[in-house]
Amino acid sequence: MQKPIFLLLLAFLLVSGVGAQEILTLDKAFQIAETSSPDLQQSLLNLERFQKNLEAQRAALKSRFSLDVAPVNFSRNRRFDNRVSQWYTNENFQTNALFRVEQPILLTDGTISLTNEFGWQSSNSDVTEIESQVFYNNLYLNFNQPLFTYNRQKLELKELELNYENANLGYVMQRLNMEKNVTQYFYNVYMSQMNLNIAKEELNNTQKSYEIIKNKVDAGLAAMEELYQAELNLATAKSSLQDREVAFENAKDQLKLYLGMDLYTDFSILADVSMNPVPIDMEKAIENGLASRMELRQREIDIESSQFELIRTRSLNEFRGDVNLRLGISGDNKNLNQIFDAPTNSPSVGVSFSIPLFDWGEKKARIAAQEAAIESQKLNYTDEQNQIIIGIRQAYRNLQNQLNQIQIAEQSQTNAQLTYEINLERYENGDLTGMDLNLYQTQLSERKIAYSQALINYKIELLNLKIQSLYDFQKNEPIIPADLYLEQKN
């Protein structure tokens, strides 16, 4: 449908007068946006935040080692001894270190820990006037296990995993959205550049028409009113050119801002808007969209997150228990190598229960509210499915309509070009006024712009269908969301 010679002429017009400017293609714009786009950088930072939170939680499930050291602890206290009904003064000097290893148990939500306290203590009082100096060591193995409640460690880890997956989906969606926005901004610049070139062409044609009528007026072959009209047409063409130059620079600034480019970098757009119709299978597009769209997985994550919140809600005022077991061995002696000559075993067992009695219906009401929230999330999932189907159908219909619009716009441009050439000859022969010729010139410019816009609209709508269905009909292959994840990209 598009002739090769026209493409060559179009490319020449686009780069003519650019000089040493940088030539920006759509593929190059994508490359710049992937590394510099502020929107994509924000999405990457959000993804990194959730990734680090997940890494931190996984690290927290490993053994934790800690060492508390108290090199100096001195006290002097006045105390009363009830046994002998006598006040006495006690001085105590102590130095110790506490080493702890703590291991969370993900399977049961319990915790097992090993602690060892080693120190030296010196103590005396004015009652006995005997100073006690002793080394001591306390070694304990502790186990704590909640009963009759949900596994908080598993729930928190699963939530962070879902948050990270959701952030990854958001990044993928942002990349696809970036492709759409870059394309839109890119073709906005292209159209502004096209309008500028057409305005230059209009000015050139108007200048020639002005010179023709001026020569005729000078030779007495045309009325002075024709010259006045030609001067007005020329001034209008110059004003239109200035307006198009301003619009072109503004469009370039918007593209630079979105791509994250240096605002002082100058460039010129080189775009291929040739017409290559792509066969579309709407049923395949809908099927692939429903199977692959990240928004559906995000709605599933919302449902799962709501169910987690329901678990927490049900734990309000819950009946629960805790079991604490401890096995320990303690020893002390004034000689360091004799600490465990007469050790003391220190076992302990503790079982406790928390029994709710009456909460005035608080728990029941909160559970009902959360169940309603879950149902709302399920409705959102169904609505998202319907929106995907509708969006793909609309994109398909728009594509078919754009094909018709392109044919009409191409024929209109051809007719406008022939009409202008015929009336230009009439104008040169004196059979047409300058005002009438200007109308034909304006009509031709509008038809050229309309044809270019129809071609661009088709490309943008084709890209929209690609994003809606996650299927590239140009390459005839599905877009796999996992291939767009950060890990895969890097």
TrEMBL record:
Residues 367-416 form a coiled coil. It holds the Pfam family OEP. InterPro entries: MdtP/NodT-like (IPR010131), OMP_efflux (IPR003423). One of its GO terms (molecular function) is efflux transmembrane transporter activity. The keyword Metal-binding does not apply. Keywords: Coiled coil. Transmembrane segments: none annotated. The keyword Heme does not apply. Belongs to the outer membrane factor (OMF) (TC 1.B.17) family. This is Outer membrane protein TolC. The lineage of its organism: Bacteria, Pseudomonadati, Bacteroidota, Bacteroidia, Marinilabiliales.
